[in-house]
Amino acid sequence: MASFDTETFLVDATDPGGLVEVLDEVAGAPGAWVNVEPDVDDSLRTEVSGLFAWFSARGAQVPVGTFVAGTSRDVPSIGVDHGSGRGAGDRLREAGLSAPDGWLLRQDHPKRGLVWEAQHQEPRLIDQTGLGPLAQFLMEATVLFCPLPTDGRFRISMHTPRR
Question: What are the C-alpha distances in Å from 17 to residues 6, 100, 129, 133?
Answer without folding.
Answer: 19, 17, 12, 11
